[in-house]
Amino acid sequence: GINPVTGYGSGLMQVDSQHFNELARYGIKPEHLTTDPCMNIYTGAYYLAIAFKKWGVTWEAVGAYNAGFRKTERQNQRRLAYA
Predict the structure, then answer these.
(1) N or C: which end of the chain has fewer CB within 10 A?
(2) Which residue has the higher pLDDT, 43 or 76?
(3) Of 54, 79, 56, which is closest to residue 66 (Cα–Cα)?
(4) Is 69 left (phi over 0), alpha (psi -120 to 50) or beta?
């Protein structure tokens, strides 16, 4: 899917392209996210775990996976919309 702000999502978990530079430090290339379903799910689960750590196991955390982790009023509204 296309994210109009940051780029696009890759693979089953729609890992956002904004994370590609960080993932490259761990040897994960964008093509791994589209050709290796296990790597894609593992990577998506990693970012979902970060959201759970920040917001607890809540729908807000699930919304953060899609809408972003910034704590602003606009992001809060986007998270609620996704949740």
Answers:
(1) N
(2) 43
(3) 79
(4) alpha
Q: How far apart are CA 75 and CA 79, in angstroms?
A: 6
Model pTM? Answer: 0.77
Torsion from C-alpha of 16, 55, 42, 3, nearest 10 degrees: -10
Domain ranges of the chain: 2-82
Strand order in the sheet with 7-10: 2-3, 7-10, 15-16
Q: List, for residues 35-53, the tens digit of each pLDDT value.
A: 999 999 999 999 999 999 9
Measuring CA to CA, how many Å separate 52 from each of 25, 35, 37?
23, 27, 22
45 Cβ contact partners less than 8 Å away, ≥ 6 residues apart = 13
Written as six digits, the tokens of 35 are: 């050709």
H-assigned helices in the chain: 20-24, 30-35, 37-55, 59-67, 73-82
